[in-house]
Amino acid sequence: MVTDPIVSFYSGGVDDRGRTLQSILEWSDDRLESVHDYIQWVFPTTTPSGINPWAPLVTDVTIAAFKSSPLRDRLRAALDRMLTFYGLARATDATGLVAIAIDRNRFERRAANWLTPGNHNHLRLTRIMQSMWALGLESEAAALQRCLLNDIDKGAGAKRITRETVAYWRTALPREGG
Hints:
This protein has one domain. It is about 55% helix and about 5% strand. It has helices spanning about 5-10, 20-25, 30-35, 40, 60-65, 70-85, 105-115, 120-135, 140-155, 165-170; strands at about 90, 100. Strand 1 (about 90) and strand 2 form a beta hairpin. The longest helix has 19 residues, at about 140-155.
């Protein structure tokens, strides 16, 4: 039987440094900011990372496993932790519509950390969107993209991010219908 390292990690196993998903999600904001090799495990994609080229990639096996509720629930928990880190929040309405928006109680304090031109967190946010999409949480990925392009770029973060970053965010997800 082939063991997928991402499925193993999300099922309670460890990454290549011996860390569990739960332990990473319990880190302080300062630690999430200063450590750079966890994001590829917590939000894996189909594309190798330049920062952590040894991190596993999403495969068909990974995608099939993430069709199960427990793994998707853990992925949502990881998303929620990172949204808190960025001063954002996720909500789902009674119809199941997912929204991600600025958390007015945390945003300005947290934005001071990441909402600057060329900040590495902009690429992390791109990775998070791509990972959510690849692992079957398209609604959450699209909600994050909408928040970044509308609430951040055209609102609270105007002139604090580069056009290059906006282009990455805009093209992070496949276009509808194609």
